[in-house]
Amino acid sequence: MRNDPVQAQIARQLSAEPKLVTYLFTKAGVRKVPLSGTFELTPRCNFNCKMCYVHLSKEEQEARGRELTAAEWIALGEECSKQGMLFLLLTGGEPLIRPDFREIYLGLKKLGLILSINTNGSLIDDEMIEFLKANPPYKLNITLYGSSPEVYNEVNGNPAAFEKTYRAIKALKEAGLAVKLNCSTTQYNRDDVGNIYNLAADLNIHTQIAEYMFPPMRISAESAGKAVRLSAKEAGREMFLNIKRRSYDEKLYLMRLRKVASGIKVIDEDAECLDVPTAETLTATEHIRCRAGSCAFWVSWDGKLSPCGMMVEPSCSITELGFAEAWERVCEATRAIMMPPKCTNCDKRFACVVCAASTYCETGCFGKDEPTYICEMIEEYLRIVHEEYERLLKEGAYEDILKEEAEAREKALAAAEAQAKPEAEGKKE
Ligand code: SF4
Ligand code: SF4
User: Which ligand 2 atom sits nearest the alpha carbon of residue 358?
Assistant: First the structure.
């Protein structure tokens, strides 16, 4: 592990969701309160990433529809806030490409919302840093595509953007703003993911790596199951490598590896798609489990409300229906979504990344066929995990952990016996 374990742990904990927030989401999920929203301010971007699920050129965007104006976004924020929205993520495309970004941001901030921003970071100059310092967001999520201009060129065709982004990340961190890095693994940067981690570790910034890429159904219905991405087996291997990258020390890595090898779900503190444990999600035939469409929503650049940004449907126009009516309809339609029967009964589900949106994007519909790309990816992931776990076990890597556990068990037994003795003696008397 290259990270300083203490710094890495601190950075990770700062990036994880606070328990109070999880509690609020659980309550909101049960009551169908739209606690968290995402406003996708534009599909346009100054990059041209080969794997993007939303990017449109200005001409394509204009041919498809109209972006909401600053006044419309602020009015929508007000309406959502009245319905219970507290958290709001501003995203794109690249949201900073909009000349009226600051007007929108300040208008929404005045409503008392907890704002986060997704950005590629390349448009953050000194002036923007001063603006953000004066009006800090809750979190800035910056996507880092590589650790050099060469990799940037491969992924998004903009080599000069690497230096600009790196400088911005450093300056934002120095300014005391909360920054998290995101990285999507593709065939263009997979050999660089370790370097991205190291670069972030040097800055004590937490990095979230996505190894699974959704097919871009938002751009075209023909995309079901097709994406610019790693092969399923390669993605499975990356998933395995990320256990190590996500563990801030060797012991944590060994414990996580053993959990997965034993069929136990490892809670990923980075996960953005968390479950809402309601009666519906616990029934035998399985409904959608995550927060989408029960306490979280997404509004696309042209004003369409959907449960999450990866879903093309269910979707309702807020410009036609207003937010409250659109939310009610989307909630109802989301409740009807089922997972494929094979996923419901699958013994690999504890390790699987499958969800309603990924099923739709992989197969073109909900609740029917299992997404075979994901099945293959998870199979490979678990195969490597088992192989590696057995190897480490044989090499004695678990000896200290097993010894510690045996000692802790003995201590607990002795304490229980010591507690039971006086109680038994008391009864005799
Ligand atoms: S449907 Fe999938 S991608 Fe969308 S929020 Fe839920 S888990 Fe995440
Ligand atoms: S996607 Fe495949 S591996 Fe994952 S739960 Fe469904 S059937 Fe199982």
Answer: 1
